[in-house]
């Protein structure tokens, strides 16, 4: 009888053998088999030989793959057992060995393990062929495939013999690291060179550095390595052809400004530089900076022929050759080429070089401690984007410096020319209420700052905010203001620019002038600048710092003004120019400007007058005006003022720039709505604005140099012919004169009902045209009817009467009968007068 222990051992051995013979179906997805519990009869003891079935591990995972690139799936060293297969491939394709798939392809990969990214790594490969003209593509990686796997992307670049290919790195460039180091962003680049003597590692690189270009001779490979679960973030690297060179590689570096320390390694570091080869580094040192090269690690080779040297080349200078063990040059400036030459070595001890390049400014920074008083703010701006100025505020690099009131700060300026800096001081004058306002009578003057600043003050701005329901009064304490206009430009002294809070310009002013006061009832910004551009004035030594006297006085008065008001006192010695706010640009929409002119005492006319201009709300264009006021002498005595108030013609010569106002449009609509129609008895209705008569195209028959009134109807003054023909009375009409209407005449316009005419007509007023003819005027009454028509009128040029017989025109007499008068109801008829 078998003992229970032996039976249990035999059962375990059988199960172990069965588990070893079981195969894994690669098409099975990640599933888990549940545990099977032990089942026993009630009241019976458990069988000690029974072994419970445990939960099975996940069996595998499938992955859809679509790619244009060629890639290889390879097993990581020491990884757990796992297999990768291509589904539906004939013959079956599985790993190991490595599984290589050539793109383009679309397939399904089956892995026998649940986490294949822990067991495999994927390598993508692309070949780039360069001809004599161009390369087939740039270097760029696709991040869509195998994001959880450890990946490497390789690009094999090949160019014609004796040529170089150049890699242009995107900003901010690359930096070289030791091959044993890794990059902070996990994106590690490696560049190798294929030579007849073997593979040469040019170096390992990370992003964000000083290296902008690398040139490789003949054939090379660029590799990007990413660990698992790393998001790919890569910009394209441009591949192009480079010039021929004896160096195996050329590294171009743009050294940064300020103080910096950059490390470089020779090719094949630390294994040893190739024998009888050379490598070049091109360094560009920023202006006003020096560079020093320091060798940190060197290993001298055992040379069979020649020696290992370092050569320095600079344009316009003789080449300098140094041994590897010598002290290297210092304070290099401009563009420097460093070339490493190796000798023919025995191979027992190769050449190894590691060095750094130290860059520092040739100038010392200018330090300044600024303490701003209450109410003043200082801003400093570098206006030259191409300069190498470095500004610091409390040791922090700044592009724009702002020092607030009642604060103290330390400023540093390195390589900052004074003409490139703009120093602006700003201040605010405001009051909440007029009774409590302390601004009245305040003087606007240029403040004084510490002399340690690298440039003088170039601009001062004052924000003026009057209280509600009050007026801002601006006056010059230096004898009045004048607006900068043609003929009276502000070429000397400081200029004052007035603008609204939204930036709308109101004008440029300076002293002296005839404007005694400027008044506004809104917020205004006053800016003071040197006479010309800031940069030119700094070079000439002129700036706002030289202004000692006050520029303006500020006061707030009760009440509001409409628009902008100028108070001025013209003089006899010179004309006074007036311009609308913002000239030559147009006035603001719906704004008003007024000039209150106070005449001198010598003038014997009215002591003052005013000029007012208002702008509409233009739909397009703008409105601006420029005028002049002149006071002249007549003989040796002061006579009446000849105010060349050619406001509309010569004095105030309007420069109206294509203005179309809403008011004008509204007026046009009203005129159009009120237009009347006139009725032509022999024609159709027309309006006075209609073009009834038009000249033939290209003719100007209606243009005359002069018109003789006595000859207007001269063609109607001839005597009638003996045969009663028309030729003696009427001559052929001129071109484009009015022709009689010959159309139908039976239609009449509707006649409105009018109140009855209470006037008594004169007896015998209308005569029978068959018995006699009197060339009289057409009867006028009733005059209120547009439908009145005399059937005896002929449609000729003068509407003369006709007889009752056949139509026959009648020549005019040289004298016309006077129209007969009307009589009122109270007048009696005088028979004698009728007979006369």
Structure, explained:
The chain has 836 residues and is mainly β. Helices cover 5% and strands 35% of the residues. Strands 27, 30, 32, 33, 34, 35, 36, 37, 38, 39, 40, 41, 43 and 44 form a 14-stranded mixed beta sheet that branches. The chain has an 8-stranded mixed beta sheet with strand order 5-2-7-8-14-11-12-10, with no helix packed on it. The protein starts with a helix and ends with a helix. The relative contact order is 0.04.
What is shown here, in short?
By secondary structure, this protein is mainly β. Strand 11 and strand 12 (198-207) form a beta hairpin.
List the helices and strands and how they pair.
Layout: H1 4-21, E1 61-67, E2 70-75, E3 84-86, E4 93-94, E5 99-101, E6 105-111, E7 120-129, E8 150-158, E9 164-168, E10 174-177, E11 188-195, E12 198-207, E13 211-217, E14 219-226, E15 238-242, E16 249-254, E17 260-265, E18 278-284, E19 289-299, E20 303-305, E21 309-313, E22 320-323, E23 335-341, E24 344-345, E25 352-361, E26 366-371, E27 377-382, E28 390-393, E29 396-398, E30 400-403, E31 408-414, E32 421-430, E33 442-444, E34 459-465, E35 470-475, E36 481-483, E37 495-500, E38 505-520, E39 524-529, H2 534-540, E40 552-558, E41 564-568, E42 576-579, E43 592-598, E44 608-614, E45 618-629, E46 653-661, H3 662-673, H4 831-835
